[in-house]
């Protein structure tokens, strides 16, 4: 069931979204060669504590997971697409890093992700991340009253496929509100004019995931969480929480 949020509730979601934005900004500023993924996780946890917010990631255990998620961020490096578990790995020059983070504040959730390079960037990685951001922007632009979920999926998929990138099937965006994951699902590829109509008060986490090689294959790592590309190619993941309003899409996790 899709819950339509009131304008007051959307404002409250914005506050949660801004906690997410601050944490991701802080992580991006600190991430550098030699910094560990656990240090990035602890920094994000500090932002949560300072805001009086909680983590929807920590302890989360969906049906596919063998264990509860043990951190407040997902930290996915190089060939990891999503759901990477932070550990003692120290960032190296040229790494491509995706950080996914959520916060819950006042009963409402926010969810967002960024991808970036550490140290000396590879041109191919810069292009991959730029395309992911363009796909996200296209998805957000399609998130308007009167369109359908398929229009968002089509906008994202068109950008990704035109650039020659792969899309991991079965993983994409989702509704969000009182819980991090709500209906409806928001695929990263689809047919325009199909799916649930978009209405004022819907809130969606829109999140393109791109595989550099152009192939779609991925597998689950032994930890039961991390998804990795089958061919070892790099991946990027970006995400915003967006409210559908009569005035147009409102990005609740916008970073300033």
Characterise the protein shown here.
A hairpin with a 6-residue loop joins strand 5 and strand 6. It contains four helices and 13 strands. The radius of gyration is 17 Å and the shape is globular. The strands form four sheets. It has a five-stranded antiparallel beta sheet. Strands 1-3-4 form a three-stranded antiparallel beta sheet. Strands 2-10-9 form a three-stranded antiparallel beta sheet, with no helix packed on it. 51% of the residues are buried. The model has no long low-confidence stretch (mean pLDDT 97). 28% of the residues lie in helices and 23% in strands. By secondary structure, the chain is α+β, with helices and mostly antiparallel strands. Helix 1 runs antiparallel to helix 2 and helix 3 packs antiparallel against helix 4. It comes from Streptomyces hokutonensis. Its cofactor is Co(2+); Zn(2+); Mn(2+); Fe(2+).
Short overview:
The chain is α+β, with helices and mostly antiparallel strands.
Q: What's the helix and strand layout?
A:
Blueprint: H1 7-30, H2 37-51, E1 73-77, E2 80-82, E3 96-105, E4 108-117, H3 123-141, H4 149-162, E5 173-175, E6 182-186, E7 203-206, E8 209-211, E9 218-220, E10 227-229, E11 235-237, E12 240-243, E13 250-251
Antiparallel strand pairs: 1-3, 2-10, 3-4, 5-6, 5-7, 7-12, 8-11, 9-10, 12-13
Helix pairs in contact: 1-2, 3-4
Enzyme class: hydrolase
Cofactor: Co(2+); Zn(2+); Mn(2+); Fe(2+)
Keywords: Aminopeptidase, Hydrolase, Metal-binding, Protease
């Amino acid at each position: 069931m899709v819950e339509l949020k009131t304008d007051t509730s959307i404002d409250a979601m914005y506050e949660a979204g801004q906690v997410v934005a601050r944490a991701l900004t802080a992580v991006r500023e600190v991430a550098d060669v030699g910094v560990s993924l656990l240090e990035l996780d602890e920094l994000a946890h500090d932002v949560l504590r300072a805001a009086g917010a909680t983590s929807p990631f920590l302890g989360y255990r969906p049906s596919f997971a063998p264990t509860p998620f043990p951190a407040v961020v997902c930290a996915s490096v190089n060939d990891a697409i999503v759901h990477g578990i932070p550990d003692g790995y120290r960032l190296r020059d040229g790494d491509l890093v995706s950080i996914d983070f959520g916060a819950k504040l006042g009963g409402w959730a926010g969810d967002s992700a960024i991808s970036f390079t550490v140290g000396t960037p590879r041109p191919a990685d810069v292009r991959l991340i730029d395309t992911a951001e363009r796909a996200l922007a296209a998805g957000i632009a399609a998130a308007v009253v009167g369109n359908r979920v398929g229009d968002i999926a089509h906008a994202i998929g068109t950008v990704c496929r035109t650039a020659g990138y792969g899309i991991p099937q079965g993983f994409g965006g989702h509704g969000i509100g009182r819980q991090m994951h709500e209906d409806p699902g928001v695929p990263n590829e689809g047919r325009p004019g199909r799916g649930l109509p978009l209405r004022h008060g819907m809130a969606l986490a829109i999140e393109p995931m791109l595989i550099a090689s152009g192939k779609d294959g991925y597998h689950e790592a032994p930890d039961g969480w991390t998804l990795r590309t089958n061919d070892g190619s790099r991946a990027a993941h970006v995400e915003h929480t967006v409210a559908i309003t009569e005035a147009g899409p409102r990005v609740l996790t916008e970073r300033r």
